[in-house]
Amino acid sequence: MYQAGLVLEGGGMKGIYTAGVLDFFLDQNIEFSSCYGVSAGACHLCSYLSRQRGRAYDISVDYLDDAHYCSARNVLTTGDLFGVKMCYDDIPNVLNPYDYDAFNAYQGRAYAVATNIETGQAEYLRLKDMRKDIIAVRASASLPLVSRNVKIGDKLYLDGGLSDSVPIMHSIVDGNRKNIVVLTKETGYRRKPSGHLGLVKVRYARYPKVYELMANRHVAYNRMLDYLDAQTANYQAFVIRPKRASGIGRIEKDKEKLRLLYEEGYADARECFEDMLRYLENGDSVQR
């Protein structure tokens, strides 16, 4: 196990790129002492920590034609685009069983990042017992406008990407001097201002911090990219990301496009593997 942070961005269905990267890591028996997943990144992190190669990919594509998994009907009938019962009960316990014992054998620390909608702050929810803590993953992946707020204890949460899309700074503060960061946005990407802000303001009138986060998300995200560049130069981050835009939407139904993006993630991880090992073992920044 490498004493390093693994930081996984979200990105909806673009997260299947991350699934490819993580499956390559599993093939090479690569583990990290601290893992941070945001939204889709938190979902795929689960299968990585249980060492179930291919599971994240299968879950991403096998149920796309099932309205109980992801559909506008779900939004209208339950308030959630992704069916909560199917995603967080039926799949892990029946359809594609989660290996809870393998997860329990993981010796590091794992977190799902979620946004407290009352404070507007990111919270880093520890994953210790996936039978109970799956709700933290659900909170991390609850997209605004198309998901219900998720209550854990006396707090309400939404998608972690609202408050900390790529928690590299938090990982460094936690003491991780080396970090592998997997992004789902391509090289050169800069975030633009969010749309639907009027709808956000109405929907979350009781939680004004949500509107503030959405209105300023592009500024925070682009500032994070600048910080990440600086940490790469300082040898505290090694970044894996797509070389070009995938053309995949946040909600994508084209299985062939998803397969290709998964394979791209796997290939990109393989391509930079020797450089990544050199970075982890020697601390040299050798990214090209």
TrEMBL record:
Catalytic machinery residues: 39 (nucleophile), 159 (proton acceptor)
Full protein name: Patatin family protein
Motif DGA/G location, chain numbering: 159-161
Residue positions of motif GXGXXG: 10-15
MF-aspect GO terms: hydrolase activity
Keyword Transferase found: no
Organism expressing this protein natively: Eisenbergiella porci
Keyword tags: Hydrolase, Lipid degradation, Lipid metabolism
Lineage: Bacteria, Bacillati, Bacillota, Clostridia, Lachnospirales
InterPro entries referenced in this protein's UniProt entry, alphabetically: Acyl_Trfase/lysoPLipase, DUF6363, NTE, PNPLA_dom, YjjU-like
Gene3D superfamilies: Cytosolic phospholipase A2 catalytic domain (3.40.1090.10)
Domain PNPLA intervals: 6-172
A Pfam family per the record: Patatin
Gene Ontology annotations of biological process type: lipid catabolic process
Record keyword Lipid metabolism present: yes
Motif stretch (GXSXG): 37-41
Record PANTHER family: NEUROPATHY TARGET ESTERASE/SWISS CHEESE D.MELANOGASTER, PHOSPHOESTERASE
